[in-house]
User: Fold this.
Amino acid sequence: MNYLHLYYFWTAAQEKGFLKAAKKLAVSRSTVSTQIRLLEEDLGRSLITRGPHQFELTPDGQKAYAACEAIFSTGRDLVREFATGVEARRRVRIGFDGSVSSTELLQVQEK
Assistant:
């Protein structure tokens, strides 16, 4: 299973259409459709009911969408967790040697 196929499917399901998903992903409509078709082939299931001006998730598509929600939610959580770690590592710590008095140090901290 290809992560990109899942992402295109998830985006199309959120946007409720191939064209809106294509615009959001900055790719062509046919690219989105092809990626989803490849996902459907991998899964052996139809995920979307296709027709003129029609975009509807099949029951299997609804299950796949729920799974994608869990996958991408977990991914966002991981990014947030790591971003917090990056922020913590970006903090600048300044040390003072013994030549700075505790009064001077308190004045610096108050600023």
User: Anything to note?
Assistant: Strands lie at 48-51, 54-57.
